[in-house]
Specification:
Layout lengths: L8 H40 L5 H37 L2 H7 L4 H39 L12 E8 L2 E9 L6 E10 L5 E12 L4 E4 L2 E4 L4 E4 L2 E4 L5 H7 L8 H13 L5 H24 L12 H27 L5 H23 L2
Antiparallel strand pairs: 1-2, 2-3, 3-4, 4-5, 4-6, 5-8, 6-7
Length: 365
C-alpha cells in the first residue's frame, strides 16, 4: 500500500491527460450544440434590426459562447469523469492500479487535482471574460440588437417607481449627474393606480431634480389623444444614485465590483440577500468542478464484467445532476431569504461532498 496521496508521476500525468482531453472534448461538443440551438432562436431578432447581417451573428456568438462555457463546464467535468473512469474500468486498468496497492482516493487524486485546476481557470474566466460578455450582451439585447450606446458601464432594462409613477428605460449610459437614459417610457398613475398618461422618448437627461425627456410622445389615456411635446420633466424622486443601487446585475460584475455594489446598496438601507448569495456563489460555483470526480467515481470501482458498469455510470450521472438541482434550488431560496447567503451558496457543495465520499467508500469493491 502506497502512503503517498498521489500515485507515481507517470500514472498521475497519464490520468490527468486522459481527463483533460475528455473534458474539453465534451465541453466543445456541448457548447457547439447549444450555441447552434441558441443562435437559431435569436437569429431572427438579431437580423430583424436593419443593417444586421452575418457579422452581427458572429458577434452574438462571441458574446454568448463564454456564458455557455461557464455554465456547462461543470457538466463537462462530470461527464468526462464518468467516461474516463468507465473506460479505465472496462479495460481493467482500475483493477491493475488497485492490484498495485492504490486506494480509491489515490486513483481519484489526479482527477481531483486536475478538476481543481479547472476550477481555478473557471473562476478567472468568469471574472475576466464572462462578466464583460454578459454586460455587453444585456446592453445589446436591450436596444433590440441595434447600436450599443457608448458607456462606461451599460445597464439594461431599468424599472423604477417614483411614488405611484413608473419610469422604464431600455439602457443607460454615463455616470453621476451626467447619466442618460435611453428608450424611456414614463407612466403617470392616479390615486387608484390607474395609468392616466404615458410619455415615450428616445433619451432623458438628469435635471436635478427630475429627468428631462427630449421631444416625448404623450398619450392621454382619458381622452385617448396623442401629441408631441418639446420636452417634459418627470420623476423628480429618482436620482442617479437610486438608479445605480436598484440595477445591480451580479452576473455582469466581477467579484470586487460586486462587493462594492453590495456595500452601496446596504448603505442605502436596501436588502442585499440576493446579491450576497450571488457573491458567495461566484466562489462555490466554479469550485463545483472539483466535486464532479468524487460524484462520478462510482463508475470506476466494481467489476466491469459483473454487468453493473452501466448502472454505476447512471448513478454517477444522477448524483452529479442532483447536485446542480440542489445548488439552483438553494440559491433560489437564498435569493428569497429562506437561507442565509453563505448557507445557500455552500451547503449543496458540502452536502454532496459528504454524499460522494460516502458512496465511494460504500461501493468500492
Amino acid at each position: 500500500m502506497q502512503l503517498e496521496f498521489f500515485p507515481s508521476r507517470s500514472l498521475t500525468f497519464y490520468l490527468a491527460r486522459l481527463f483533460v482531453t475528455r473534458i474539453f472534448a465534451v465541453l466543445i461538443m456541448l457548447v457547439l450544440v447549444l450555441q447552434v440551438l441558441d443562435l437559431l432562436g435569436e437569429s431572427g431578432d438579431i437580423l430583424a434590426h436593419q443593417g444586421n447581417g452575418q457579422m452581427q451573428l458572429l458577434y452574438y456568438v462571441t458574446l454568448r459562447a463564454p456564458q455557455l462555457v461557464a455554465r456547462f463546464l461543470p457538466y463537462s467535468v462530470l461527464l468526462a469523469t464518468i467516461i474516463t473512469l468507465a473506460t479505465l474500468n472496462q479495460n481493467s486498468e482500475v483493477i491493475s492500479m488497485k492490484a498495485a496497492g492504490l486506494s480509491a482516493h489515490q486513483v481519484l487524486a489526479p482527477l481531483i487535482l486536475t478538476a481543481l485546476v479547472i476550477s481555478g481557470f473557471s473562476f478567472a474566466f468568469n471574472e475576466r471574460v464572462v462578466t464583460r460578455a454578459t454586460a455587453t450582451l444585456d446592453a445589446w439585447a436591450a436596444v433590440d440588437y441595434g447600436p450599443i450606446p457608448k458607456a462606461t458601464g451599460p445597464k439594461a432594462n431599468l424599472y423604477l417607481a417614483d411614488g405611484r409613477d413608473l419610469l422604464l428605460a431600455q439602457s443607460l449610459t454615463g455616470e453621476g449627474n451626467a447619466l442618460t437614459l435611453n428608450g424611456v417610457t414614463f407612466y403617470r398613475r392616479d390615486a387608484n393606480d390607474m395609468i392616466v398618461e404615458q410619455l415615450r422618448a428616445d433619451r432623458a437627461t438628469f435635471m436635478n431634480p427630475g429627468w428631462k425627456l427630449d421631444r416625448p410622445v404623450r398619450f392621454d389615456v382619458v381622452n385617448t389623444t396623442t401629441s408631441r411635446l418639446a420636452f417634459a420633466t418627470v420623476a423628480p424622486g429618482i436620482t442617479p444614485a437610486k438608479i445605480y443601487i436598484s440595477k445591480v446585475d451580479a452576473d455582469s460584475q466581477d467579484i470586487f465590483t460586486l462587493a462594492g455594489s453590495i456595500n452601496a446598496v446596504h448603505e442605502a438601507g436596501r436588502r442585499t440577500t440576493a446579491l450576497d448569495a450571488a457573491w458567495w456563489h461566484k466562489l462555490s460555483g466554479p469550485l463545483s468542478s472539483a466535486l464532479m470526480p468524487l460524484l462520478g467515481a462510482v463508475a470506476a470501482f466494481g467489476l466491469a464484467r459483473s454487468g453493473a458498469l452501466l448502472i454505476r455510470a447512471v448513478i454517477g450521472m444522477s448524483l452529479g445532476f442532483a447536485y446542480f438541482v440542489f445548488d439552483n434550488a438553494a440559491l433560489a431560496m437564498g435569493n428569497f431569504g429562506g437561507y442565509p447567503p453563505f448557507i445557500a451558496a455552500w451547503a449543496p457543495f458540502l452536502l454532496f461532498a459528504l454524499i460522494g465520499e460516502t458512496v465511494l467508500i460504500r461501493t468500492e469493491e
